């Protein structure tokens, strides 16, 4: 079956399966992975879900009943940035189809446009006391957004909801169907009535909600802050008593990881939660009278088992350890002591401990199943004694430990070769012995997806930000940036050479790097009174570097990464390359023999890990290009016309004079 679609110049053919596809395709309409029937262009890599290809060009959509929406293949706005903000989910979209109303400047992405297909019946509506417009019922709302939350309980919307997209008003189904009048054990005198407008502050100051797990300002005592409730709440007018709906639902809870039920205690008190070990101030707890446990409401049912990306095994929740096991334990996420008298997560295989609230951080969870067979895949095949075939090279590689040139660099990791290595007898290709033993499939402690070892001539490392060549780990879906193997080997906890204490990775940290002051640091010192922070680029700085640019030539000796300048003469605190001042407390590269010092980025340049002569193929030029450097500016860029005083690409054909800056391609 053939289809002519307005978004593509070529005819599209219907595919019922994916057996003839080389890799997983993505739909150009909704940008989701194609897993069922689709339309494909035989001439180029263009795919559309069958549902996306058959969308109406004009639609009287229930989310925008005022005017019809017209389908476009790109955003319809005057901004130079090719992006739009969906009026439904409030997400910024950069690609894909969009339904647009030019009169109202209303945009609807494809996922939101298809939501009515999940609506039961003929667009059932609800007239609710809390909103002036009818609400549509959606059985399954699958678009997550930080801007969308339930008006009643303030939790993120998911699952069955009622909505008004004109006003961006959302209600969980369970919140929309709450009883208008209830009897609450914590207020037995009168019935409580459901309301959505907050009572006057004078009525609210005696309310139980002031004492019940409510967030208070830093300078608030907790009792008399007059903090008004948001969303829905139950209210008793005679007693001037109100309580948010989130504290009225449960009073007896069967806990999943505990053998006894927890009972709600409707009395504000201060306590330390036995499940998570944190303090609860003026909260109403849940208790197990049999085991003498007191817990927060959110800790009634902790997840029994969690898989974290930073650990190879799963961790399980426990309330306490046996007496003979109790000793000092350190949380492996934030490097603080775990009080073993209260709950924590531990690995029963290797004694890995994590605070409960650290383990609950979903940004650290590992959702992917990693098979043992994937871990055992090797990157090299042994052909004989001292002879291998590596996936990255077409020729056989021979083992050697004799160095003819001290400036050989490994083509895999771009580090100098000083130990046993493999080399190609037919061309200038070298690999450390350890680099030939890398696994093809690996998981990184800070990346969600399993990564595959690949060889690329030039790429930019996601972790350190340097342009590199050689081995890298890439995502199989081709949508995540590459990570060089040097950065892939950096652990989340280690002792840095330039600091006396261990550093650990804090994914929530937003402080400037102590060394470069140019980037946010993610590695911080484990000592509380130490403010030392490192960014991923400074961590990846090589211990030695060679500076070979003509004009500032220093290639007699390698430059060593130095962490502190103890010379008291400030006249010497200058970079010998750029001749700008240096901070003696910042890291720098130094040659003691020549008394030659320079800033790290001056010594390394923008492309410290790219092999000169690396081939590059560009769609804008018919011949292959090669990566080169020229500090004197003998070449001029064919695109911008400026002299090439840095990295550039040059055509390999001698008769072709095409030259382009690497960043101008």
TrEMBL record:
| InterPro entries, per the entry | C1-like_sf, DC1, PKC_DAG/PE, Vacuole_Formation_Reg
* Positions of the Phorbol-ester/DAG-type domain: 9-60
Which UniProt keywords are given for this protein, alphabetically ordered? Answer: Metal-binding, Repeat, Zinc
Q: What one GO molecular function would you report for this record?
A: metal ion binding
Please report a single Pfam family linked to this protein: C1_2
Q: Does the keyword Protease apply?
A: no
| PROSITE patterns linked to this entry | ZF_DAG_PE_2 (PS50081)
Q: What is this protein called?
A: Phorbol-ester/DAG-type domain-containing protein
């Amino acid at each position: 079956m053939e289809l002519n679609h307005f978004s593509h110049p070529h005819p599209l053919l219907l595919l019922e399966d994916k057996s003839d596809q080389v890799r997983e395709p993505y739909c150009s309409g909704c940008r989701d992975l194609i897993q069922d029937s689709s339309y494909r262009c035989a001439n180029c890599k263009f795919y559309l879900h069958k549902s996306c290809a058959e969308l109406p060009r004009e639609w009287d959509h229930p989310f925008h009943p005022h005017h019809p929406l017209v389908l476009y293949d790109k955003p319809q706005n005057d901004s130079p940035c090719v992006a739009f903000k969906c009026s439904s989910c409030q997400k910024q979209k950069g690609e894909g189809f969009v339904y647009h109303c030019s009169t109202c400047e209303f945009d609807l992405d494809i996922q939101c446009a298809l939501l009515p297909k999940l609506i039961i019946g003929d667009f059932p509506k609800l007239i609710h006391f809390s909103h002036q417009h009818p609400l549509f019922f959606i059985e399954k709302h699958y678009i997550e957004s930080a801007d969308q939350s339930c008006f009643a309980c303030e939790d993120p919307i998911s699952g069955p909801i009622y909505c008004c997209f004109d006003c961006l008003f959302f209600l969980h189904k369970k919140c929309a169907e709450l009883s208008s009048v209830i009897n609450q054990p914590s207020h037995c005198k009168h019935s409580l009535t459901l309301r959505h407008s907050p009572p006057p502050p004078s009525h609210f100051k005696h309310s139980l909600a002031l004492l019940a797990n409510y967030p208070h300002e830093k300078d608030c005592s907790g009792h008399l802050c007059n903090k008004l409730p948001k969303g829905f709440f139950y209210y008793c007018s005679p007693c001037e008593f109100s309580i948010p709906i989130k504290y009225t639902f449960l009073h007896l809870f069967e806990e999943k990881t505990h053998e006894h039920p927890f009972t709600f205690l409707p009395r504000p008190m201060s306590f330390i939660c036995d499940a998570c070990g944190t303090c609860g101030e003026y909260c109403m707890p849940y208790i197990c009278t049999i085991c003498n446990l007191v817990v927060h409401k959110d800790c009634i049912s902790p997840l029994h088992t969690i898989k974290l990306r930073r650990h190879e095994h799963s961790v399980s929740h426990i309330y306490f350890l046996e007496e003979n096991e109790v000793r000092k334990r350190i949380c492996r996420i934030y490097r603080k002591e775990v009080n073993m008298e209260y709950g924590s997560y531990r690995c029963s295989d290797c004694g890995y401990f994590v605070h409960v609230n650290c383990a609950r951080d979903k940004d650290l969870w590992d959702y992917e199943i990693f098979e043992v067979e994937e871990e055992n895949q090797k990157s090299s095949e042994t052909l004989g004694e001292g002879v291998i075939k590596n996936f990255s090279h077409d020729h056989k590689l021979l083992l050697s430990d004799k160095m003819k040139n001290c400036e050989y660099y490994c083509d895999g990791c771009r580090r100098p070769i000083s130990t046993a290595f493999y080399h190609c007898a037919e061309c200038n290709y070298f690999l450390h012995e350890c680099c030939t033993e890398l696994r093809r499939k690996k998981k990184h402690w800070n990346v969600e997806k399993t990564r595959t070892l690949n060889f690329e001539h030039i790429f930019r490392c996601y972790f350190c930000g340097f342009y590199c060549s050689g081995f890298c780990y890439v995502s199989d879906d081709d949508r995540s940036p590459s990570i060089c193997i040097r950065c892939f080997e950096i652990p989340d906890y280690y002792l840095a050479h330039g600091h006396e204490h261990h550093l650990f990775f804090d994914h929530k940290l937003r402080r400037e790097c102590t060394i470069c002051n140019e980037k946010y640091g993610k590695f911080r010192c484990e000592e509380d009174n130490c403010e030392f922070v490192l960014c991923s680029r400074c961590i990846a700085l090589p211990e030695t570097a060679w500076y070979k640019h003509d004009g500032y030539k220093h290639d007699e000796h390698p430059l060593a990464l130095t962490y502190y300048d103890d010379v008291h003469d400030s006249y010497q605190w200058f970079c010998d390359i750029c001749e700008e001042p240096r901070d003696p407390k910042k890291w720098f590269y130094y040659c003691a023999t020549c008394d030659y010092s320079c800033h790290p980025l001056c010594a390394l340049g923008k492309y410290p890990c790219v092999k000169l002569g690396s081939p590059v193929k560009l769609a804008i030029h018919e011949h292959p290009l090669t990566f080169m450097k020229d500090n004197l500016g003998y070449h001029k860029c064919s695109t911008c016309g400026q002299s090439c005083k840095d990295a550039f690409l040059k055509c390999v054909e001698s008769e072709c004079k095409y030259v382009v800056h690497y960043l101008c391609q």
